[in-house]
Amino acid sequence: MWKRNSLTISSKIVNPYLPLFRSIPKSHHYGLLGRSTFTSTESISATDPVNRVPYIGGPRASVFGMPSLAGLVNHYSRCYWELSKARLSMLVVATSGTGYILGSGSSVDYLGLCFTCAGTMMVAASANSLNQVFEVKNDALMNRTRHRPLPSGRITIPHAVAWASSMGLAGTALLACKANMLAAVLGASNLVLYAFIYTPLKQIHPVNTWVGAIVGAIPPLLGFAAASGQVSLNGMLLPAALYFWQIPHFMALAYLCRQDYADGGFKMFSLADANGRRTALVSLRNCLYLLPLGYLAYDFGITSGWFCAESTILALAISSTATSFLLNRNTKSARRMFHASLLYLPVFMGGLLVHRLSSDAEQSLPLQNSDPLFDISSTSESGIVLTEEAAIPQKNTKQPRPPLAYASVAPFPFLPAPSYISS
To answer: Per UniProt, which keywords does this protein have (predicted)?
Structure first.
C-alpha cells in the first residue's frame, strides 16, 4: 500500500504534466498537446467527419512530457509543407520562372528571377493553405486527403489561417517591392480567384475545372509581367498552353478519382458523365488546341523553327492518349493520358527555354550599307548604277513565314492570327 502511494506521488513529481495529457479526450486531436500515439479508431466520433481520422505524426515529447524544440520544428515544418502543397506550388513557381525568362529579352536578371519565384511560392502556398481551410470537412471524407494536417488534427484552423495570411501578404509585398505592381496585382488576384472563387465553386458547379485552368494560366503571365513590366501578345503563349493543358490533366484525374470526389461532395464534370464520353471529348478537344502553339511561338519570334516540330510532336502525343481514352473509356487509358500530361508540361517549357530567341536579337545585328554615301556601289547586268536610295538598306523587318501556319490557326479563331509582311 505504501509502495503504491509512493510510486504515485513520485510519478506526479517527475511528470507534473501527466494529468494535462490525460485530460485530452481521445476523439479530439487539435492543438499542440494532442496525442501522437493514438491508434484506436473505435472511440472516434462517427458523427463528426473532421475527427474520423487518427492523429498521425505529432511533435515528439521530451523526457518530462513536454514537446522538444526539435520535435516542434519538425512537426510544424511538415504541417506547413503539406498545407502549402509544396510540390504543386513548386510547379507553379516553375511556370512563373519560365514566364520571367521569356519576358527578359537577351539578358536575365537572376536576382529579380529569384525574388519573383519566392513571391510566387509564398502566394501559391497561401492559396493552397486557404483551400484546405475551406475544404477541411470535405478532405476528411476522402481517402487521399484525410491525412492532411487539418482533417487529421495536427494543426488548428486558426493557426492555418494565420500561416496562409502571413504568406499571402509577404508574397504580394515581395512582388510589389522587388518586381512591379503589375506582378503583385496578378499574384493577389490569383490568390483571390483560387481561394475564394474556385474553391467554393468545386461544391457548386462543374465549371470549376475551367476556372481552375485560368488560375493555373496566370503564374506564367505573372512572371512575364515581372520581367517586362507589361502584358504583351508574346507573354500570352505560355499561359495559353497552361490553360489548354490543364483540362485533359484535370479530366483524367477527376475520372480516376470519381468515387473520392463523390464522397467529398465535389461537383466534378466526370461525375455527371456516366460513360465518360463527354469527359474524353473535352480532353481531346483541348489537346488539339495545343497544336498551333508551336507555330505561333515561331511566328511571333519567340522561338526558333525547331520548337515548331517539337511542340507539334508533343501535342500529337498527348492527343493520341486522349483519343485512346475516347475509344476505351477505362482507368488504364485515363491513367495513360494523365501520365502523358505530366510529361508534356516540363518538356514544353524546356523547349521554350532552349529554343527561345531574345527579343532584341535582330536589333543587335549590324546593318550593312548603313552609310548614306556611296561607299559600296552596285551595278546591274546592264551596267546601270543603283541610286542612293537603293544603296541604303531598308529597315530591318520580319521575314515572312510559311503559309502552313494559317492552316493550324484556322480551327482556333480565339487565338491571335499571325501577321505576315509581304516581301
So the answer is: Heme biosynthesis, Membrane, Transferase, Transmembrane, Transmembrane helix
